[in-house]
Structures are given as C-alpha cells and as structure tokens.
Specification:
Blueprint (H helix, E strand, L loop, with lengths): L11 E5 L3 H10 L4 E9 L1 H7 L5 E8 L5 E7 L25 E3 L3 H10 L9 E2 L5 E7 L5 E7 L7
Parallel strand pairs: 1-4, 5-8
Antiparallel strand pairs: 2-3, 3-4, 6-7, 7-8
Length: about 160
C-alpha cells in the first residue's frame, strides 16, 4: 500500500477559554481576526462528540487570513477546575498542542500594544538567525501561548 496522505487540508485550531467575550475582543483588537460563525450547542450530539454528558458550549470561529480558522470555545457547563484558579501561563515545553502561530504585520508595534495593555511576552521581537523573520511568544488573556511572526524576506532578499 502506498503512503498516501489522508489529510486534505487544515480546518481550525480550537482554544478553550474562560470568557469568550474577553477572548474575542483580544483576537479581534490585537490580531484583527473576524468572526466567520458562532453558535451555542447543547444536547445529545455535542455531548456524545466531546464525551461530556449534558454539556453546553459556546463557540466562535474566527477567520485567519490566508486560510483556516481559530475556534474559541467556552464551556458554560462542566468547567475545568483549573479555570477557577488564576491564569497559568502555558510553558513552551508543555506536552500536547504547544501554540498557534500567526504571521503578522509590524511585530514591534504589536508587541508595544500588547505590553502596553498588560499582556506578557517572553521577549521583545527577535530576529531569527537566518534573518528571515522577527518572532516572539506572547500570552492571550487565558495564558495560552501564541507565536507571532513577521516575515522579513522580500522578493530579491535572502
């Protein structure tokens, strides 16, 4: 049997958040993402799908320019006990999904806006060793790690 890819394309990354309105504001105001669709789900289908009886979730899918979606998910029932504690910042070496990465314009200006508004970044924008990008890691309102990258290579540059 030939080794053929089963994957046809990329759909979305889902992030479980504490307060969907706060998260929506962050992703719209800082990253410029727009709402593709949103819904609240409860009932047999969603309970069976996520494996939590009697669950109620609200989700908002945000358009990512260039393709794909970012899905914000708030559980209105069955809260994770960690959600009642203070926001813990996701370490860069955490097992599992590490971080979504976004290509952005003007990383320095975004860094300044984030830090001016109290959001933590692991560093100021850094140039990659090959000089092709500036990059940093930042945290969203729930302490979810994000990689933000500004491409520096222009046609004719190395």
């Amino acid at each position: 049997m030939e080794n053929q890819s089963v994957v046809k394309g990329f759909r979305h990354v889902g992030l479980v958040v504490r307060d969907i309105k706060v998260s929506l504001s962050f992703y719209q105001n800082f990253l410029g993402l727009t709402i593709a669709r949103q819904d609240t789900e409860t009932g047999d289908f969603i309970s069976r799908l996520v494996g939590i009886n009697g669950v109620t979730i609200e989700w908002i899918k945000l358009n990512i320019p260039g393709g794909g979606l970012l899905e914000l998910i708030q559980h209105h029932s069955h809260l994770d006990t960690k959600m009642t504690l203070r926001v813990n910042l996701t370490p860069t070496n955490q097992l599992g999904c590490s971080h979504p990465a976004f290509t952005v314009n003007n990383l320095q200006a975004l860094y300044d806006r984030l830090t001016d508004n109290g959001y933590q970044c692991l560093s100021a924008p850094l140039h990659s060793p090959d000089g092709k990008v500036k990059v940093l890691f930042a945290y969203d309102p729930d302490g979810i790690l994000l990689e933000l990258v500004e491409e520096k290579t222009r046609p004719g540059e190395i």
